[in-house]
C-alpha cells in the first residue's frame, strides 16, 4: 500500500460512499441481468458499496477485499447493521489477489489509481474473472461541486482552485507510487487491453440539491477538511482564510450552517466482460 493513511480517512470514505450511494445503485441496476455467485469488491474500504452489492445480489458470496484490516472491520460492522451477508479479506493489491478468484463479478472503485502500474492492476483484476464474468471499475468521473461560485466572502471560484490543487496533489501521488508507470488513462481502452470485451463506460449522477441533509453535509465538511490539510502550500492566504471560514462551525457562512451547500457529481463506471 502507498503512504495514504487510509484508516484516518475511514469516516470520510464512509460518508463519501454514503453520499454517492445513488450512483452505485444506478450502476448496479446496469448489472441486474447477472446472477453472480462470487463477487469481489477490491479496495472496498469501509464497505459501503460492498454492502450494496450484498443487498443487490443476496444469493452471492460477496467478499470485501482491502489492505487495511481496520476498514474491513468497519465493513463487517456495517454489514451486520444492515443485515447483509458479507465476508472480508485482507489483501494487498495487486500482489495479494492471486488466490481470490475466480469471480463472476469484480467491482473496484477508486483503487486502481493508487497502484503504480494501472494497466497491470487492471490485467490482474480481469484475470480474477470466470469466462463471462464482469469487471466494473470506478475511475475518472467529475470532481464534486459543493459551493456557489461566489461564497459571499473571499475571491469567487474557490472550488475550481481547490480542484486544481487536488489535481496537482494527485500528480504527485501518482509520481511517488512504487513502480509508477505513466499510461494514457483511457479507461475503456485499458479494459480492452486487459483482454475484456463488450467494454462500455457510463456516468451516474449524484445530485443532492440544497439544502443538504446531514450525511452529504458531513461528507462535504470532511472533504473540505482534507483539502485544508493537503493544500496548505498550494493556496493563497485569501483562499485559506475562506476555507477556514467555511470550516468554522460558528460561522453562518460555514458548511455546517449555510443553506446553499449542495453536492453534485458524476461517477464513471467502466464495464467489461471476460470472453
Ligand atoms: C479511495 S479508497 C476507495 C474505497 C472504496 N472503494 C470507495 O470507492 O469508497 C481506496 C481504498 O483502497 C485501499 N487500497 C489502496 N491501495 C491498496 C493496495 N495496494 N492494496 C489493497 N488495498 C488498497 C485503501 O485501503 C482504501 O480503502
UniProtKB/TrEMBL annotation:
InterPro entries given in the database record: Methyltransf_25, SAM-dependent_MTases_sf
Transferase as UniProt keyword: yes
Cross-referenced Pfam families: Methyltransf_25
Keywords (A to Z) from UniProt: Methyltransferase, Transferase
GO biological process: methylation
GO MF annotation list: methyltransferase activity
Keyword Transferase annotated: yes
Domain named Methyltransferase: residues: 39-133
Name used for this protein in its record: SAM-dependent methyltransferase
Organism encoding this protein: Longimycelium tulufanense
